[in-house]
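User: Hey, quick favor. My workstation is busy. Could you predict this chain's structure for me?
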Amino acid sequence: MKARTALPVCLSALALAADTTVRAATSVNLEFNGTGSTLAATGFDGVYNIDPTNFSVAGGSLSINTQVGDTFGQYENNLDPDTAKNVFYSFIDPLTRTVAETKFTVTNLNTNYHGGGVWMGTDEDHYVRLGVINNLGNGGVAIEALRENQDLWPGNTPPGPGNDIQGAQVGSITTSPQLTPLTLTFRLIRDGNAASMFYSTDGTTFSRVNAPGFTFDNVATSATSPPGGVSVEGAFRVGLYAFGGDIGSIPATLAFDYLHATSGTTEWNIDASGDYSPWGNWSLGTPSAVEATGLFGTKITADKTVTVQEDNNVGTLIFDNSHRYTVAAGAGTNAGLTFNAFLTNPTGLTVLSGSHTISAPIHVQKSLVVNVANAPSTLSITGPVTFDAAQSLTKTGAGVVELKKYNMDSLIVNGGTARVIPGGGGSLSTSVVKGLTIGGTTDAWTGKLDVSDNKFIIDYTGSSPIATVTNQLKQGFAAGAWNGNGISSSTANAAGTTRAVGSAEASDLGTTTFGGQTVDPTTVLLRYMAAGDANLDGTVNTTDFNLLAGNFGGSGKRWFNGDFNYDGVVNTTDFNLLASTFGQSVPDGAASSLGTLVPEPTTMSVAGIAVACGLARRRRRHA
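Assistant: No problem, here it is.
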């Protein structure tokens, strides 16, 4: 191996006894330019079961011989103490993401279940590793990826929730017996509680172990993450190893050229538009794994587009730039973003500054928290969004998130605004949720649902939320300005007092369809329309007048009863709102339309109808 220029290593060599108090760095850079068969010569902080006769440092290389003894010590049987020798490690602070890379040459890998590679974890019972192994049952020399988490072992005390071993192999990298040296480059990546692994035979083109998007779960990074740390030894570490199975033979040799590891958040790293997938477009590699976090930060100096060419798992995306990032779909099959996480962790979209757009398709497999921290920042999600069953969207922060429609189990608006993008029309913009929660209390809501010019369905179970919805509409109505918190409409605000958001129970209307969706009696319906449209059919006519007339003078009323200003009373104020729009129709998605007069079957004016029904006299009595 060629000699390398030494890089400064800001890590102290700490004894294992001091493990729990170690203050780790965020990077490890080992070039193996020392000399000898000591821990100090390697540059690592520590080693399990040191055997100086089977490793050495010379010429820019750390060479480790395989020895009889299961990797990390009888891991398949969870027996302690672990007996694998020369398992080297250095401490590293496990921030959002940890990427470890090593290049090495292996020779004489001819004995079954001998091998070695790179690992990271908290100890020999909680780790992930990526190695080369001789496995005659899988075609000879193979790539092996494995995660062990002893706290998942069913026989653990207390018992774990599942199998403690996850593994995958890529067979037949070369045949056994190995006749020529094989040089490999490995990348082992941890994102949150997940790990993904890549290998290269040429140092340039990397392949993912197992399948595109595959991620190992339940990676332990501390005594509490995850899933409880019954037996976690201590601080997070990264290192190299070589091991042998229970068959003794001439040892294989793994000569490691370097180990580089870095923890942090990977950030878009070019001042240009470009593809999402290339590793070099990001400061710490492509965020494409369950629980991966990617930052669209300060690098760009003008609006740029990041194109997604394939399906990418991700946990959280963060936007922080006054210039607009647009994340768009390319021509690749299934191009888009799949938001997913393990355990009870949510996924996230965060906007810290600026306004940004995601037009690529989004698939939410784990409930999504959208934090648009500041007004007037807006996150526009203009592409199709699909939520798996029982998954929710929670909106936080003072800014705005907008979607074409909200189709999910629950929408929770704790702060700022969740807006339906106007102009969709029909079923294209009809939102359907099983639950709607807006932060705050009656008459003091802290969040806002802006339905703009669309329909919104709340398909509830149990008791009806109609009273709460009516109160939220009352605050949103804001004396006709339609700019309050609760449930509001920016389209109605722009159109003036003749436009509104009406509400009704599906059972009020006796309907089984609404906005192109099938509904049942336990459903609350919302619609942008003309003020006075009591039955939400899009036109103000005699049917709406009769509903108002039948409840005129009554209290404790709702929109369907003719209470068009949400004060609970049907009176002349509501009559005047109906009169101002009588005969008008507002079609779906008519964001800027003021409607047109539609002749009724009778030539009588609304004033004439009022007189004929005696409403004018009642009006004087209640004036």
